[in-house]
Amino acid sequence: MNIVVAQSGGPTCAINASLLGVFRHATKYDEIETIYGSVNGIEGLISNNLVNLSEIICTDDDVELIRQTPSTVLGSCRYKLPDPTKDIKVYEDIVSTMRAHDIHAFFYIGGNDSMDTVMKLDRYFKLNGIDIVAIGIPKTIDNDLPETDHTPGFGSAAKYVATTTQEIIRDSSVYSVPSVTIIEIMGRDTGWLTASSAVLRANGETAPHLIYLPEKPFSTKKFLDDVREVQKTHRAVIVAVSEGIELDMAELGEEFQSGKTDNFGHKYLAGIGKALEKLVTKEIGCKVRSIELNVMQRCSSHLSSKRDISEAERIGGSAVKAALKGISGEMMVFYRVANHPYNVRIDHVSVSLVANHVKYFPTEWITESGNNVTDEAVEYCLPLIQGEQNIRYKNGIPQHYVLQQELPHK
Amino acid sequence: MNIVVAQSGGPTCAINASLLGVFRHATKYDEIETIYGSVNGIEGLISNNLVNLSEIICTDDDVELIRQTPSTVLGSCRYKLPDPTKDIKVYEDIVSTMRAHDIHAFFYIGGNDSMDTVMKLDRYFKLNGIDIVAIGIPKTIDNDLPETDHTPGFGSAAKYVATTTQEIIRDSSVYSVPSVTIIEIMGRDTGWLTASSAVLRANGETAPHLIYLPEKPFSTKKFLDDVREVQKTHRAVIVAVSEGIELDMAELGEEFQSGKTDNFGHKYLAGIGKALEKLVTKEIGCKVRSIELNVMQRCSSHLSSKRDISEAERIGGSAVKAALKGISGEMMVFYRVANHPYNVRIDHVSVSLVANHVKYFPTEWITESGNNVTDEAVEYCLPLIQGEQNIRYKNGIPQHYVLQQELPHK
Q1: CB contact, 8 Å: A207 with chain B?
Q2: How far apart are CA B233 and CA B207, in angstroms?
Q3: Number of structural domains, chain B?
């Protein structure tokens, strides 16, 4: 039999490691002949665009380079499957590609939306008595998938956030004048990644002094009070804020309300960091800077967490093992067995418990003041950022693996 | 005799290495007794806020940690001295501090403004027959100081820009839909750092496809044409743009001209990247993202260029040697002796040739089309980004050296 693996959703530093996990584990089994990769996630299966991974991952060098390349070597997509009981055309296309390649197992590395795809495919296969299994492999820097202790990709993103925040603290603290630095961190719905900036406490940092997550309502008035309070004891105030927090426009002054919200609140143009920067400039008047960590927090593989990369590869391999047992419609998960020493066990749960659900940052890990996180958050994150990858450089730049030249714009 | 060293201007990854260079070289001379550090640049000499560096840099561990800590361990300032022939009060304060500590040599690590300070102090000392020498040690990520082949700090910033741009290329290329990604890079007046993104060619990258520097006038119409042209052959278009380019507002449509420039051109709120993002969204309509590399490009010491750090330390040491010869009013410079193998010689030139002058990116290294740089730029930059520092991590985060707890806001 043959199998196929695909990558979906937003890029991370660990999604290629999970691809390697599937590929390298699958090559160990005699019953698996060809390991295909689907280009651009499920789109490759719909349009019959597969590659034979054995022809691509040929040497130990290839493995090393793919492991240290961020983003998805097979490309990605944001494709949502229709209801399999209503619109079956696309399912027939997928099955047709799979039949043509004698594929009996499908592995989808992705986040919430990708698990929806796994769930629907599994349902379609079962409804129609098709002997193909579908397994989900978690991936997202947001860490917002239920049932699993954490998601591959999160650890590397958290390591980037912590390291970069610490460097920004140094950068922001050089002048003798008071300043406020606002760091905008990814996470539209959940505050996991923003909270990870608190791990700096383990190394004796007192900043970030204020941490705001989308799990708590945000008040601009309270925010300004918080900043003024921290200024009493710190010259350089560092704020970590989740991109997902929402400003209460009613709370803002007239300038921001008079139909001119585009000047201020325009979330999609300039982001929450810029908005808060403008607010502090106007209301407090000191030196202010906002910094958006942007896509760097999900693609800075030169700074990956070794544990994250290794776990991502391991969970990919476990997915193959599960598929060979006939498991289908399940997502692989981590259970944290212990923190000292850190230890996880891999298992799987019904993908229906994950798809279209969100795991929020625990509100009991947010301090009563609503502007910081407790030490439980630090304890939780710290093990996930441990270890550094041995990155190969060429000409002073990390070497990347590129599957193919990008296609011209049709 | 005693000496004093200070750090000034914007932070870099290499300015602490130059401090170490001065300190470690000075400890080799019997005639130098105490090596002072001035807190917050020249401000520490004005207000008599000095530290004894021997009491701070005690162990090899201290040296290692300071070398890998970004920004300035002694703090910085943006203080411009008055004309020494007109207002002498501040000069008297500085000399008073120096006299009180038996200081006979002053080393100032900084950029253009700091060289102005060195020049004025030297003039004041000479005018008044004061036996103190003043030496400048170059530092700036902008690489815009005349007379020197390059400036310490630039190589590490260029390595960050190249590495991060490459990661952004991977991140931007995953989807099957056309996209434009705009990377905004530091450099208000000069395009050195933006141009450094072209080193990726050495590793086979074709992106960034378009590179715009402030040394050439920027036309929004031409920019849109350029993007459309690249889209014919590339699905994911990558643009590197210097923060210093200026939009010709007259060229823009009515929407951007009708007194509402704040919505679009507001350089200080959202930057040129956001402005171009909005322009592409409006005029081309594909997926667009802008990314500001912000302060990360000057403080990401976890990714420093080993050559940059080592040269920064070396030039600091050479400054001590020059001072002991009685040299004053000079800035240390690099001359590039050869590129293959790379080799530099250290010398010094009159600081008057540097202070208040700017070294622009050579226009002959900009392609005729005005939207890219030639291979000469790549040849120039490549040697400066070579090698990686061996960074010490603790709890998964690089270890930093922090001189003192920051002072409360007065």
Answers
A1: no
A2: 12
A3: 2
